[in-house]
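Entry 12.
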Amino acid sequence: MSTIICGERRVSLERLTESAAKAAAGLKSLGVDRGDRVALLMRNDIAFVEASLAVGMLGAYSTPINWHYTPAEAQYLFENSGAKVLIIHADLIEPIRKAIPTNVHVLVIETPPEVSAAYGIAKEIRATPPDMTDWNRWLDGFAPYECEKLETPGSIIYTSGTTGHPKGVARTPPTPEQTAFLMRVHGRGFGFTSFLEAGRKIVVAICGPMYHAAPLAYCMMAARVGADVVLQTRFDPEELLALIERHSVTHMSMVPIMFNRLQRLPDAVKRKYHVSSLSYVVHNAAPCSPAVKRAMLDWWGPIIHESYGSTETNLVAFCTPEEWLSYPGTVGRIIPDAVVRILGADGKELPAGQIGEIAARQIGGPDFTYHGDEAKRRAADRDGLIATGDIGYVDPDGFLYLCDRASHMIISGGVNIYPAEIEAELHKMPGVEDCAVFGIPDEEFGEAVCAFVQPQIGKTLAARDVQSYLRERLAGFKVPKRVEFTELLPREDSGKIFKRKLRDPFWEGLDRRI
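Predicted 3D structure (tokens):
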């Protein structure tokens, strides 16, 4: 039986499920029924798992909300999702109180000590406000909910929008067969299947924020197969190493920025912790620098796998460490349970090696829609496949490679320029810590290439140095016309650079975005 661990707190899944059944009864009394939505606005915590279980018992959708959102952004998600209930950590209430629609029931969870310590939260805002309903006291008023077993539809995950508002990805309620299919595919992709077949204990560390699709899915799947789940309230590289050693963690799902931050730890800190229990790490969500991945493989050994998919498509490609070393830069081989096609501008499939739009889907899993926006769902359809928003190609051996996001592509003087190609070269430049390349308005060419560069600490770079370096390695039209420097690039918690925050100011006041 799974145990959920957060700091010094440990709760068995059996006990948590009993508590979740009480919560399900309480939510039912508030009008939550099959297909309804319940918003979750909290950091990584045992209560996040408890609330997710409760919502799933009713066949309703949990809707995690990024707690970094401004009041206006949160209000959009409340209204767009049509959430009937909001479950929230106490310290997050005041910044968004006025954004909560009056018809939404609010249940407040006292901010636990681990979260308070990780984020430096003042004592006076950790408790439930006196004018609101406290989650634990509210639970005591209900007996466990007894109902027919429903296949949980999972969560409505709002994907980060490159333009406009984020889109809520809602899966159609799965059949038992579809649930079994997802368990099988994700069991292999997450590295659980081989351990379960061998009767070995699985201990998972969740180090990414659970309002993102991958950490949440990984957590809930791990609990479902009986693994122990260790929740890290906030990613800290040294603390993660300590958690791996303390709990003998065997499996993790990560994003590349975590590798970067682990690599920056002093060698003495890296040697301080034993991580030999680690058997399987899978990364996704953002491109990983080949140099960083090789360094992680040298440190942790051949245990780092890679998967590719999206909130809409689910897992469609996967590669082992051995495959990646043989095909550097690939995001994986197309899995047997998926279809991936590369499409040209005319919508026709391109041959191996040619770059185009990636369209994909899992075969056997439930379909999805964009909540409240069927038009966007139809726009993403490609003859039964789903446009991922990525540009890439498949090699003759069936391995998939990403070139860029379609929305990031720069069209300058009628020529397609892929920022990822320029960023890959910039990452090799001495003195460069990180970078972001995108298009800005240009009267002559339509768009010009702009690069924002984050120098390494203590290093000084000039625009002409960057341009000269790239001119030796790339065609002249790919060299940034404008180079800006910043101490820190804005990032989402998933590790992706928030390019929109860098790009949008250049386009303000214009009636076009390309």
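Annotation: The mean pLDDT is 91. DSSP finds 18 helices and 27 strands in the chain.
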